[in-house]
Amino acid sequence: MSKLQVFPDLITDIHPQEWKFQVKKILKNLIPSHVRYKLSHQRWRLMFMPNLLLNYAYDFRRFVKNSSVSVKHPSTNLKVRTKTQLQARITIDYHSIEKGLAMKEPRIGFGREVIQRLLSNLPNYQEKYGFDETVQITLNTLSAYYYFNLEHGFQDEQLYESILKLKEAIPTYRNSKNEGGIFKITKKSILEDAHIDLRAFFQSRYSIRHFAPDEVNMCLIEQAVTMAQKTPSVCNRQSSKVYVFSSDEDKRKVLSYQSGNRGFGDQASKVLIVVSDLENFTLIGERNQCWIDGGMYAMSLVYALHSLGLATCCLNWSVEHSVDKALKKSTNIKDSESIIMMIAIGHLPEELRVAQSPRKPLQEVLIVK
Ligand SMILES: Cc1cc2nc3c(=O)[nH]c(=O)nc-3n(C[C@H](O)[C@H](O)[C@H](O)COP(=O)(O)O)c2cc1C
Q1: CA of 332 to the centre of ligand 1 (A)
Q2: Which atom of ligand 1 is nearest to the CA of 261?
Q3: 60-83 pLDDT, tens per residue?
Q4: What pTM did the predictor assign?
């Protein structure tokens, strides 16, 4: 190889911006390909660890900043910073009373500590944020607890007075049966509603990558989200939310941060982003809870949309911290909200192709011990 071939452009004037490119080109000519391969592998290994740590640091910072884990134990200090954090702590408590009442044989007078905490947090919440569903549900749960004990011969006068005082402060309070507490239900009525051919329903859902041009009406999204609201969540904290993007400009913008929608994302009528808010979590053990609750919510939402005849394709949010930050900045999604996934949705075309996506055999995934 002649000297001029190895250093092709050295003899010409090089623009400063082209230096990097030219140096790379020269090194490429000088270093044999097997050495280049080894070096690039080593470089990747050297960069991998710091980059992974940086991404964990991002998750760590977000959890410490946004959850109420750094506020001492829930029972001792309730100086939480945001409405969602206080709402979450009240929800954990009222739900523990609901759970206690839903046992086969609830213990009379159970959960005194929890009741005391609710009686101190609820007026605090009401004073700061006014009357809302959280207050309504908590008061109903406290009433259910009081009447359960009364029926079993335990009259808690202090609790009665406290509930009365709280209720009197709310002119719009409703004594509603289905908003906190428990209700009786029969096996027959559960089975009647559960008797649907779910196998065919599951089998007929595919990830769709070809949408009809018709627009998806917001009514359908509202129906699907209402259905997905029934998804179970840890202590009923309901950390999940759904963002809807409809305009061409917005859809293009959000999809530009996601790498798995190439070739079909532009046909979607709407793009949803499912998030789970870290402000709902209170313990170190809950550091990954957002992925579970948010993931389950997303699954319900996909099935709900499928039941309404819509086509969906989950879009991964397997990104590094810089991309996560960039999307949040451009959409005003809060730092506390963990992005679970995007979902591209549209109407089904009359005919389409779907990937077979065969599943693993049962014996590989069902391990009977
Ligand atoms: C969290 C998640 C992320 C996904 N991301 C993408 C994606 O970015 N692009 C895509 O075309 N499909 C994506 N999929 C769809 C999967 O490829 C698909 O669910 C799988 O192959 C099974 O096929 P099926 O959904 O048709 O049953 C995703 C699915 C899930 C659950």
Answers
A1: 26
A2: 9
A3: 999 999 999 877 655 544 578 899
A4: 0.88
